[in-house]
Design goal:
By secondary structure, this protein is mainly alpha-helical. The chain has 3 helices and no strands. The longest helix is centred in the C-terminal third of the chain and has 29 residues. The model has no long low-confidence stretch (mean pLDDT 94).
Length: 72
C-alpha cells in the first residue's frame, strides 16, 4: 500500500477533479489566512470566515473520499 502523502501527490498529478478540489481548498485557506492576519473582522468578514471554514472542510471531505475510492 502506498503512503498517504505519496497517494495525495499522485492524485494531484493524475486526477483533474482531485486537483480542482485541492486548488479550491488552497484558495479558501489563503483567504482564511488573510482574515486571520487582519485581527479584527467586520460582521461581513466574520460571516465570510465561517463560510470559508465550512467550504474548506467540505472540500477536504471530498478529496479524502476520492483518495479512499482510489486506494481500494
Amino acid at each position: 500500500m502506498m503512503p498517504m502523502q505519496q497517494l495525495r501527490e499522485q492524485m494531484a498529478e493524475q486526477d483533474p477533479e482531485y486537483r480542482r478540489l485541492l486548488e479550491e481548498h488552497s484558495k479558501r485557506a489563503r483567504r482564511l489566512d488573510e482574515l486571520t492576519r487582519k485581527g479584527w473582522l467586520t460582521t461581513e468578514e466574520d460571516q465570510e470566515e465561517k463560510r470559508l471554514k465550512k467550504e474548506k472542510l467540505q472540500l477536504k471531505d471530498q478529496m479524502e473520499a476520492r483518495l479512499r475510492s482510489r486506494s481500494k
